[in-house]
Structures are given as structure tokens and as C-alpha cells.
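User: Can you predict the 3D structure of DoxX family protein? Sequence below.
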Amino acid sequence: MKSTKIIFWVTTIIIFLFEGVMPALTSQTELAKEGIRHLGYPEYFGNALVVFKICGVLLLIIPTIPNRFKEWAYAGFAFDFIFASISHYAVDGIGFQVFFPLIFLVILILSYTSYHKLLSYKASH
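Assistant: Sure. Here are the predicted C-alpha cells for DoxX family protein:
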């Protein structure tokens, strides 16, 4: 169970840093705004996305949040990564930008599966 906890916290903290902290600190930079424009989205979409990302990572990282809300956060991040990959493919074709969000999708899946292993362990003990 110790290894499951380690996997959960390492993967969840990676998601927290890359999907919460980094966007919160960089979302108003010209580079971030240009990235949203490059994909064809309006600027307000980027702002809304950052708000949802920050809310989502807080739901994942705070242990006392009910499971139902954590499930929605996991689903939201899964959609985010999938659609980010699709958006980059539609605009730029095949390249690293297409696969980068899918790497984070794998990390998210590891967090999600370890989270459920921890829940089932708690339920049985």
C-alpha cells in the first residue's frame, strides 16, 4: 500500500504543478496568450481554462474533498488533455505538441487508478 500512496502523491503533485501552479503563474504572459490564439481560441477561453484547472487541481490535492468532486476533476482533466492533443493536431499536424498532453493523460490515469486502489484499501480496512 505504501507504493500505491507514493504513486498517487507523485502523479497527483505532477498534475498539480503542471495544471494548477504553472498556468496560474503564466496564464497572463504573452506567450500563453499567443498559444491560445494560435489554436484558434478566443482569449477568454484561456482565462476560463485556467480557472477550471486551478479548481480541478485543488479538488484532487485536498484529501477532504468528497469522491464525487474528485471524479469530476479527473474527467475534466482527461477531456482537457485529449482535446489539447486534438487541437494541436488540427492546427499543427503531427508533432511533439500532439503527444505532450497524452503524456500527462497517462500520468493522470496513474493518479486515478492509484486513488481508487487507496479508496478500496480504506473501505476494506
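The radius of gyration is 16 Å. The helical segments are 2-26, 30-38, 43-61, 67-92, 96-124.
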